[in-house]
Design brief:
The protein is mostly helical. The chain contains 7 helices and no strands. GO terms for molecular function: hydrolase activity.
């Protein structure tokens, strides 16, 4: 999945949860949902494909592990206990949805790192960050390729509906 797939599907999941669970209504901060939905990639892509490209050579490293998710949960719980910042509670949920959307169970050596070894498998894409980015764009936005294209289109549609709904609800502020 790429940016809009993660954003759209995660926002939709939280929107549906908010509709089905009355206790959540009006309490979901979608800005933090968006950050959580992209958090593993915001950390791992620059780290594994740019900063440590020679040693890691992968865009799925530390932030795509269960250890990372558990640490995010612990940090958020500690912050919540001190400041009761309910809006932060969506971050771990959105981050774990990212792992599910990436089908991380298919790469258990990453998901269960370091319990299955200390190294991460290298991506199949050789080259630097720009080469990686061009490969992703070439493959993600080609309708003949895979579910990545479908999830991106679906994610873009969900994001557009969300922006229109937000704009309609906030028009009175101006």
């Amino acid at each position: 999945m790429f940016v809009f797939g993660h954003l759209g599907l995660t926002i939709l999941a939280f929107y549906l949860a908010e509709q089905w669970l009355p206790r959540l209504q009006g309490k979901v901060n979608y800005g933090f949902v968006a950050v959580g939905a992209l958090l593993p990639d915001l950390i791992d892509k620059p780290l594994g494909r740019f900063l440590l490209a020679d040693s890691l050579a992968s865009g799925r490293v530390f932030a795509h592990t269960l250890i990372f998710w558990i640490l995010v949960c612990l940090i958020i719980v500690l912050i919540w206990q001190k400041w009761r910042a309910d809006f932060l509670l969506v971050l771990p949920g959105a981050a774990v949805l990212h792992l599910l959307e990436d089908s991380m169970w298919q790469t258990p050596e990453v998901l269960f790192w370091p319990f299955m070894g200390w190294s991460f498998p290298a991506d199949e894409i050789a080259g630097g960050f720009l080469d990686y980015l061009m490969h992703v764009f070439d493959n993600c936005y080609d309708p003949a390729i895979s579910m990545v294209f479908v999830s991106e289109i679906f994610g873009i549609m969900i994001c557009m509906v969300g922006v229109v709904r937000w704009y309609r609800g906030n028009r009175n502020w101006q």
